[in-house]
Amino acid sequence: MRMSVRIAIAGVAPAAWRAATRTVSRCVEQPIAGGTPVRCARFTAPAGHANAVADLQDRAPSLISWIADDVNEAIRTLLVTAARTGERVLTDGYVQLTRDIVRRARWERSWRIVDNTGLVLKISLYIDDGDDSLVHVRVGDLLVGEGVPPWIARRGQGEDVAAAIDISQRRQFYNSIESAIAEALQDCDLFRRD
What we know:
Number of strands: 10
Structural class: alpha+beta
Helix content: 25-40%
């Protein structure tokens, strides 16, 4: 039998615990220490494991999720336009912890064109685990863009701007992502088609 409980995150003060908890499934036999549920070894993902939870201080998953949500419709439209008859567009609805070819961790959200034989093309937005502010845009195996979002750059410099300027800069950043993808989609060599 399984039930849902709130779990404490190690090292978080009790006052902050309520804000830093999440719901997970656990075994009924799972121990409860001093009234606080704890995760048994069966449900604990080791650091760096594919199912590991982001560090509370790591903004990368949140940032990539925010950006991906804002450009999702434009990317889907580009892919639907590029897809041929019999191909489908799939979207990851959430950010995933993935690894690059040399096993470095990165937080990624992706969109794919697939057909009945498999992957035709993958577009991904990701942030490497080592730099939680630099956003990368990849179409197939080609890196088509990278940059630090203007609101993140400003925050690092302690600058404030008017809301209209912030909105304009965000839109410009999103447009640069969309343009880089649209331009890359013109290259037929990126598609895995016969």
